[in-house]
Batch of 4 targets.
Target 1
Amino acid sequence: MAARGPYAKGLAKRDEILDVAREVYAQFGYDRTSLREIARRSGLTQAGLQHHFSSKEELFLELLRRRDDDSLPPEDASGPSHSVDVLMAAVERNEGERDLVRLFVNMSTEGLEPGTPTQSFFEDRYAWLRSEIAADVREKQARGGFPSGYEPDDVAAILLAAADGLQLQWLLDANTPMSARLHLLWDMLQRLPAVDAQTAAENV
């Protein structure tokens, strides 16, 4: 059931603020973006904006959450909520969302500071993604769609590291074919010889 009344209006205003924040970030970058400017463009006072988002950090983390949510299949779709295919599709989509990729890289650097909400966001995000993608790899192994003997958690971590590294290369050089190269890596991994688990672990 769709939200109605003040709650629906509140959600709509939050979405509007996030859209404005994305525009301001694309124009000024993270450090030079202010809540004051986002509030002005959203038709709010700064206090009114902070009713929805208490800080710039909270606002931009929510923007990243929305990006992640938009990349997932519908809740009623069959299969895992995240998978190798979903990761590939997300990277393809990112090729048209340069500002959000740049924000992700900026915020992930901020996430290195211990005890911050940004650190918690990225820790939780990577733990969830590794778990979901590893479950997909494990299912592929059971069906014979991926070589046996390799630890799914290792495969998931390698794919995520490659995706993030390719994003950084693409920000530095827009001609970097990040999606094609991630597909190439996955194709190479699928062609690995099946091995026993101990041998695979020694080769990681």
Target 2
Amino acid sequence: MPLILVTPLSVLPDMLRTYQPSHLISLLSPEFMIDTPGGFPDSHHLRIAVHDICDPADGKCHPGEEHVASLIEFARGWDGNKPLIVHCWAGVSRSMASAYTILCDRAWRGAEFRLAREMRIRAPHAYPNRAIIRHADAQLGRDGAMVKAVEEMGPAVPVEEGVPVEFPLGELGL
């Protein structure tokens, strides 16, 4: 069954061993970006070097349209035969926004609210990065539905670091 796993960086090595994914997405600040893990094909590792910010700030790399476009294009190349792991520093913001983007891209128009509710159930700590969500909403032609759905998720449980969260596409009707 196709599976997206969101995880913090601290447990990424364990998750790579346990899940043996075919694709990996790393969203980290440029100064903390990791190399492709040994034995993992470079072509199956997307590295997006952005800071976890929602609005542009001096000296920071803001998530932009081009970052989200590369995320969508990369995820469309994932066939689902093996898991896709998405991680950021804490597994709370950038990675959750990216997973939500991928889920929405694979879902029908109108599924945005259901998927956001499902994310909140599976990941009470999720606080999807709003810049990524805004760009994804525009690029997927969702007319604000993704933005509104994420805003209506309700407050996240505050954590220093999230825990690994599974999003099995079959269980989500995708």
Target 3
Amino acid sequence: MILAPTTLRDEILRTCRLLMAPGDVHEVRIPKAGRRGTIAGYFNDAERLADAVLAINGTVPGVYVTLNPCNQALLARAANRLQERAQVTTADADILRRRWLLIDFDPVRPSGISSTNREHGRAVSAACGAWDDLRGAGFPDPIVADSGNGAHLLYRVDLANDSSATELVKHILAGVAARCATDDITVDQTVFNAGRIVKLYGTLACKGDSLPDRPHRRSRLLEIPDNLPALELH
């Protein structure tokens, strides 16, 4: 299903409803927020999450959320609110179970700046090419998302948070990188960990200054399959 444009708040809520099952706790994290340090909070309420994020969106380099659900006790760190200068954030051991496999396509460029429109488009094209390649290998259709500077494929999974699952995800990412990375587009092989954070789709990607050739862009969901079965991994 190709998605129609939505308001920023609606896009954030749509992202929450995809990633967060009822009762799940996820961390919102905003690293490198200047004098505010790392801004973080834990949420089990999508509406309150959207309101908190809207108040800060566009004033920070990027807003992220844990891909997988956290230990519910972590809600007590900052319950449905954001706090500045957070001293502790979600560790891999705090993740209850792996629910998503992330494949991240990013243009090669200097760090700390936005991608050009051409670089951005190349990343989306590379992700779509990998989607076709993986479909041929028996993978179901993924969620396709625009990170603001690159592109993401998100596959639903149901894996324990253990060393075997970590090695399996590493193996998949290495395989996709070997087949689909190019001289100008990388497949990020560091996103294997269970506590991984991902762009909160709907929020702005604000790396560096927004220039005509390297603009800040709003991240967004591009496609959500009508059926989203879990990828069977062994």
Target 4
Amino acid sequence: MRRDATVFAEFAAARSRSLYRAAFLMVGDHALAEDLLQEALTKTYVAWRRLHDTGNAEAYARKAITTTAINWWRRRSWHAEKPRGDVPDLTVGDHSDRVSEHAAMWSELQALPPRQRAAIVLRYYEDLSVRETAEAMGCSVGTVKSQVSAGIEKLRARLGPAAVPMTRELGVGR
């Protein structure tokens, strides 16, 4: 048991930064992301002995982050639609224009339904394959493809096709 705790502690220290990033992209709030990471690491620790290969620990933790975030969205009121201003016209310009584009994309990403946001975060921000995304979300490959497609469609409708830099064809893994 002591060896398990040591190996888990090493895993948590090595992978927490990456897992925190995924959690933050899912919930959009630093404090909630920390809570989400802690809950996912707790779930991973509880399951540690059942993980036959500790190489699967990151995938297990990522799935715990994803499913926990989706459950939070379903149960809590913090997922309610947040007010936003009009999306600015996106034109080529200086650095401040890029910051505005980034802020608009972030705002629209946060407004997506939970499963669409999770699918886009895992596919494009975390660069997981369709299969890895499906495993993390606990769903089929087809569901991932449809969630990503619907999410990108909404982003393009709100921001314009040129503002959504996801150029890979849907369904193609890395």
